[in-house]
Design goal:
The chain is an alpha+beta fold and about 260 residues long. It has helices spanning about 50-60, 135-140, 140-150, 175-185, 205-215, 240-245; strands spanning about 10, 20-25, 65-70, 80, 95-100, 105-110, 115-120, 125-130, 160-165, 175, 195, 200-205, 220-225, 250-255. It has one domain: CNF1/YfiH-like putative cysteine hydrolases (4-Layer Sandwich), CATH 3.60.140.10.
């Protein structure tokens, strides 16, 4: 494994250029053991002091001195608005996305195979962050995020979005029942599944999320094309940890602010 004591790795998107933002991985943190590196998961079972330090380092790498707000993620389509009052980590609302028009505050979501999405309307000064696992994605978490951004003054035609590191199609095997859930919603969803081994399929989560964003009519969508599963030195992966029979796994964070 690469030296995880190196500087925090920040992956950025062209569509968000000029805004403080980043899709972070596991490099640059203080956690040890199976969650070695920049584990920011408050519910990961890691040492709380290590997670707190990792979250501080993550924020400093994107916007030094900024406060960080996140949500208690539950694989829902729900999106909340961060207003003038910052909630504490203990008070995080149960949701899978958040938006704000408050400058100088980092908002973020944590992932470990699910797709992180960062969004912005620069002219309106409105940003969003969404956690899109398959459950939230199919139920419309990105649609909810866009709707909440519009409620703060954003315009659909100006919103840009980037889909960050997540499990790739080549790494994401699912069974027929999983595929049927998507086909029951829309038969055209078959295009997101490639035939795998007998009675199994490979699901393109990143493409599905990006397509949902594009279908919402926003200005531009960028896919970073980074696979969490196949890069253990760079990213945490729930599925990889499960296959390795590891007792726990870390989470990476994706952050954005209106500087």
């Amino acid at each position: 494994m690469a030296d995880l004591g190196d500087a925090v790795e920040v992956n950025r998107a062209e569509v968000l250029a000029g805004l403080p933002h980043g899709f972070l991985g596991r490099r640059g943190g203080v956690s040890i053991g199976e969650a070695e590196g920049l584990n920011v998961g408050l519910g990961s079972g890691d040492e709380p002091a290590a997670v707190a330090e990792n979250r501080r380092r993550a924020a400093e790498a994107v916007l030094p001195g900024a406060s960080l707000a996140s949500v208690y993620q539950v694989h829902s389509p729900d999106c909340v608005i961060l207003g003038n009052a910052l909630w504490s980590d203990a008070e995080r609302p149960h949701a899978d996305a958040l938006v704000t028009d408050r400058p100088g505050v980092l908002i973020g979501v944590v992932t470990a195979d699910c797709a992180p999405v960062l969004l912005a309307d620069r002219e309106a000064g409105v940003i969003g962050a969404a956690h899109a696992g398959w459950k939230g994605a199919i139920d419309g978490v990105t649609d909810s995020t866009i709707a909440q951004m519009i409620s703060l003054g954003a315009e659909r035609s100006r919103i840009v979005a980037a889909v960050g590191p997540c499990i790739s199609q080549a790494s994401y095997e699912v069974d027929g029942a999983f595929r049927d859930r998507f086909l029951d919603r829309d038969e055209e969803n078959a295009r997101f599944f490639a035939q795998g081994r007998d009675e199994h399929w490979q699901f393109a989560l990143e493409l599905y999320v990006a397509t949902r964003l594009e279908s919402a009519g926003i200005a531009k969508v960028e896919r970073l094309g980074l696979d969490t599963y196949s890069a253990p030195e760079r990213f945490y992966s729930y599925r990889r940890a499960t296959h390795r029979q590891e007792a726990s796994y870390g989470r990476q964070i994706s952050l954005i602010a209106m500087g």
